[in-house]
Batch of 2 targets.
Target 1
Amino acid sequence: MGKNQVLGATLSIVILGTALVGCSTWSFGDRLIDAARAQTNGGVQLGSVLDGDWDHYLVVCPYDPDVSSRLGFTWEKAPNTAESDSSQLIVFVGNGEVVSSPRVSRATIDLCSGDSWELQPREVGIHFVVAGGRLLGSPLPG
């Protein structure tokens, strides 16, 4: 095998490996959609979707001006919630600080179609119903 053939084969393997890694990575939103569609007990526990050292979560909807007061502390790096109404944030809190805040598209899952969310303990799941082809979520009663 010539030098160019070896280089070409190596490059092909690197590209294929990169593509496979990209295909196997699910976003938080994808995992939440799968969990919501598979729910059998009427709700999804977010701890089954996102591991980590967090004890509370807060759903932040577009144009939400009151995030820090509902979190109970000032979130210095809070994103601008007025950028788009096509997504929502789920803010995970541990030890009094934000540990993760994935943005989730509202095209398939909408957690912002009802009342404003309060800070929820990890044990409180989300109840989903299907309406108009979308999954609408609200906190499970405690």
Target 2
Amino acid sequence: MLSHFRFRMLLADSLRKLTLSLLIFAAVAASSAVHAESAVSADLPEKSTGLLSTDQMRDTALATQAFGAYLSAWSSKAFDTATLSNALTEGAVLELGIARLDCVFNVKGTAAIEEFARDVDTVATDWSFSGIHYFPTLERHVVFVQYDASFTRVASGNVETKRHLAVIELKEDRISRIRDFADSRWILDALLTDAPKGFSAALRQ
């Protein structure tokens, strides 16, 4: 069993790393954010420029490519399975924050994420994404992303836009985990009340 002292040491170390990452996030926001609307070169950076190290530049470029493909799959009228597979590892995890319940909703595996996306499309459709900015951190293979998601509520026909902040964890050139801090309780509420077929296997796991 983990001792109380060891637990406190691990917690302190985790908080230290998170604090340092947030400081980097704030420090580079104005000067080094990568705008997703601009084209991303297939050639990854070979040396550091400005505030960013070579590793940070490389991770940010890889995150821009992979997360851009992930959002493209969501934007597709018929959810693009091939694009999603190219963006995520097979065992990728999508974590959605549920603020009012103070918990996280997990969808595990590319197949489950695809099924979840198809479920969501029954209650909110015509997805588009804008204002996408990427921010490096002190952790290798970890990048922050901020973006706006717009969609149409199927039940009301209303168009809504929500701001998202997420952490992307990379494994080589694909995403292994997306931790989205936006409150996603509305998605679960809509699936419970408006979805024509209710919860899928992806939501019951």
